[in-house]
Structure formats: structure tokens, C-alpha cells
Fold this sequence. Notes:
Elements lengths: L21 E5 L2 E6 L2 H25 L7 H11 L1
Antiparallel strand pairs: 1-2
Amino acid sequence: MAEDSMPYNYLTMKSANKREPQLVSINGKPHAVILDIDDYKRLLEKAEDAEDLKSLAQMRKRPLKFTTLEEYTAGRSRRV
């Protein structure tokens, strides 16, 4: 069976013992990637770090606002 004519649910692992990403094709077009779990966790961590840096950059654009201890304690006593 030619690789580009394989049915949707047919998956071959040519290098199952290797830690290389495996490309899953549907109708000859790339559809998904199978990764080693450690590689996936590293990619996920990098994505989370990038998101954190983006949030930090947004926070740094806003002016800093500080609350004095007196203001904080006064606000707390009203809520209790």
C-alpha cells in the first residue's frame, strides 16, 4: 500500500526505538506529530515560559501602583 493512499487510522512506526518525532500523514498531507514524552514536556515548558514572558512584558507597560501598609490594613479590617 502506498504511503499516500493509507487509510486514516493506519500508522506505522518506522523508528519506534528512536526518539525522533514521527509524522502522521492523512491522504499524503502532514496531520500530526508523535513525540517522545520528554520532548513534549520540554516543548510545553518552553511554550509556558514564552507565555509568562509575554505577560510580564504586558505588566511592565502599566505603571506600578503601591499600597501602603496602613491602606492595606484599613481595607482588610473593613472586609472582616
